[in-house]
Amino acid sequence: MKQSELVDLLGRMTLREKIGQLVQLDGGCFGTDAVAVGPRAKLGVTQEDVDVCGSVLNVLGAEEVHRIQDAYLERSRLKIPLVFMADVIYGYQTCYPIPLGLGATWDPELIREDYNLIAEEAVADGCMVTFSPPVDVVRDARWGRCLEMPGEDPYLSSRFARAMVEGFKGDGTPQKSLASCVKHFAGYGAPEAGREYNTVDMSEWRLRNEYLPPYRAAVEAGCDLVMTSFNTIDGIPATANRWLMHDVLRDEWGFDGPIITDYAAIDELRAHGVAANRREAAKLAMNATVDIDMKTPCYAHELEALIETGEVSLEQIDTACMRVLELKNRLGLFEDPYRTCSPERRTEVTCTPERLESARKTCDEALVLLKNEGGLLPLTTGGNAPCVALIGPYANSRDIIGMWAIHADKTHSVTLAEAFAEVLGDDGFAWAQGCPTLDDYSELGEFGKIPAFGAPTGEGADLETMAAEALELAASSDVVVMALGEHMLQSGEGGARTDITIPAPQKRLLKRVRALGKPVVLVLFNGRPLSLTDVIDDCDAIVEAWFPGTAGGRSVADVLFGTVNPSGRLTVSFPHNVGQEPLYYAQFSTGRPAKTSTHSGRFVSRYMDCPNDAMFPFGYGLSYHTARYDNLRLSADELTADGVLEVSIDVTNEGDIAGTEVVQLYIHDKVATRVRPMLELRDFARVELAPRERRTVTFILREEALRFWTPEHGWASEPGAFEVMAGPNSRDLLVGEFELV
Ligand code: BGC
Ligand code: BGC
Fold it and tell me: 588 CA to middle of ligand 2, Å?
């Protein structure tokens, strides 16, 4: 449609129809038999609300989308199609590793290609808008939604935000492009004490420097929608926060697409205590320029009255409605209301060999080798291969996709045992579960009723028999691979925890296996940084597998048996102890830095009972080769406002196998009007090295990279001394200095 036709369409719409475009309802409202007692009644919406509603939440399936769209258009006066929006976060039916793992690839180019494939697969089955990418900066391992994000660093998360949005956009054709919605705007990753949905309160400079950049990168890359977060910012819930939505997002950043709330967030303004009733809630959200109300009757039932009283203007409704119409028009829905989805398209593109291979390649890059004492890994195969025992709740589990892969087809996921069998043959190893995932499944609440998450099978299954079987297996093997981790439902939304260690029954089993004196490899499945203090000495090697997705088993086998030389690097700090949280590498010095303060031992910034730093720091990961970093040099000792500084470092593969290094560049602004972090990531490069190869990596630094949010409320750099550091992770760095003049 031409813009003039859209304007004409808007002109023909009644107020009720315009408001309808601002309402999003879920599938229950469109079910053929959902009459009075179904989801509609529960929500308090009427058939008339459904008949004018503008979008549908989390319904996918080409047949369902056709059915709902057809029935809707048949009743609709102006034939404005519904737009179908859903959570396709790290894969549709082909499931990639959770975003913490995607981050660990440090390979945004690869992720862009993956998201292209994801878009095509999701579009074929009826998805038109995805609520992705989530790019909340995550610095508190207690928060369950760490899982969904690329990590703790604003620069790295921005690079991924851009790549993901561009990936979803694809080539722009309806078959290969998905509209994206960055979330959760803003600061959702910083709830106090890591508790889900809790208060977020931080200074504006911290918000600007550390939390907003990834959302902004997504907006600049052209993402189509923005989702409000559940939390408060400066005491005002994001969904009612005009400063955040209007002043920052729209005015400063120029975003003019639809803003959608997170699930039921307008109605929740009452529980926050900023609205006395739904009418006030609707008014606050509308005045914050929030366009789409996800799953509450607030807009549907209250906006008309607010217009009558003049508290909301017709112009506001027109603007919001036009944003939704423009989105539909950009998606081509007026020409093809199904946006090419069909069962045939789905069959053509779903879980194709190309997709399964792409998930495996990405997963190969996402795994992080955290420990490899005595070079235990890779395990040898063939003639002299050791006899392997594979033990633990994740030894033969398909539940390795992570909580947000709600549409993934688990039948395609390959378990560890299946992958081991491919490499070693059925007779080359044996596996046993050994223990349940948890002692007590009640922590999982109603989700706990979902079967087959590692609970002992059978009525009153005997735990000791289970353990004995595993121990016997371990005792008769040369090496034990323990596949342990969090229950899949212990992370993700609503998965906040104060205990971030491996669940108790698994620790007990690990210690009993350790006591047998065999070499132990720990393969970890988890959706957050874990505290590994109480198991670190019970194993010789650790592979962090996250929730690795469809290809998970094969990728873990690739790494364990050395087909792949691991290259993943952490994008989140792994603490020694949960009491360190929130923990992140970009710490400030404080006036009494632990290592360099002149004050005596006790009176410096430190814990009495735990180190300050991470057990495994940001950027960390091992490989099967070793690398040497040396000869850090700068092209000049000064940088001017319009100049460039070249920072070079030599990297040598000292091993006999090819490998990849993730070379990282950090800066430190030594003196500024506001305190600056001791380290801030500014660039990185994945470098492939042949055996014994030495390469020089050169980064370009410009003044722009030195800017921060200053006390004058703007982005600027300040002349003076800077350190620049490069190396394999945020801990082991070579340091140079220059002056910004
Ligand atoms: C989550 C969002 C998600 C939405 C719709 C909410 O509970 O916070 O991330 O997009 O539901 O499913
Ligand atoms: C303490 C103050 C105290 C001052 C003088 C400082 O180390 O923080 O509370 O008043 O010493 O003794």
Answer: 22
Is 87's C-beta closer than 6 angstroms to any atom of ligand 1? yes
* Whether residue 188 has its Cβ less than 6 Å from ligand 1: no
Ligand 1: residue whose CA is nearest its atom 10:
131
CA dist., res. 245 & res. 238, Å (int)? 8
Candidate of 85, 87, 181 to mutate for ligand 1, largest count of ligand atoms within 8 Å of Cβ: 87
Q: Is the CB of 263 under 6 A from ligand 1?
A: yes
Q: Is the Cβ–Cβ distance between 76 and 69 less than 8 Å? A: no
Question: Domain spans of the chain?
Answer: 1-10+17-86+278-343, 347-570, 627-740
Q: Whose CA is nearest to atom 11 of ligand 1?
A: 263
Ligand nearest to the CA of 603: 2
pLDDT at 455: 59
Burial 623-647 (b: 16+ CB within 10 A, else e): bbbebebeebebeeeebeeeeebeb
The residue type of 488 is M
Whether 262 is catalytic? yes
Name the closest ligand to CA 602. Answer: 2
Return the CATH number of the domain spanning residue range 627-740.
2.60.40.10
From the CB of 131, is ligand 1 less than 6 Å away?
Answer: yes
**Closest atom of ligand 1 to CA, residue 230:** 8
Average pLDDT value for residue range 134-158? 98
The residue nearest atom 6 of ligand 1, judged by CA position, is: 263
Least confident of 91-105, 395-409, 580-594: 395-409
d(CA 502, CA 186): 31
Query: Which of 138, 181, 196, 263 has most ligand 1 atoms within 8 Å of CB, for mutation?
Result: 263
For the question of whether the overall pTM of this predicted structure is more than 0.90, the answer is yes
Backbone angles phi, psi at 221, to 5 degrees: -80, -5
Classified by CATH at the fold level, domain 347-570 comes out as: Rossmann fold (3.40.50)
C-alpha torsion sign, points 668, 671, 673, 677 = positive
The DSSP string of 563-594 is: SS------SSPBPSSGGG-S--S-----SS-T
pLDDT tens-digit profile of 10-39? 999 999 999 999 999 999 999 845 445 667
Residue 39 is predicted with a pLDDT of 74
Share of the chain above pLDDT 90, in %: 91
**Confidence label for 459 from pLDDT (cuts 50, 70 and 90):** very low
Question: Where are the strands (E) in 375-417, listed by range?
Answer: 388-391
What do you get for the CA distance between the two ends of the chain, in Å? 53
State the average pLDDT over residues 343-369.
Answer: 98
pLDDT in tens, 403-432: 888 888 888 889 999 999 999 999 899 999
| Cα–Cα distance, 154 to 139 (Å, whole number) | 11
- Identify the active-site residue in 262, 399, 669, 683: 262
Residues with Cβ within 8 Å of 106's Cβ and at least 6 positions away in sequence, in order, are 156, 568, 569, 571, 662, 684, 686
Please name the fold of domain 1-10+17-86+278-343: TIM Barrel (3.20.20)
Distance from C-alpha of 147 to C-alpha of 194, rounded to nearest angstrom? 13
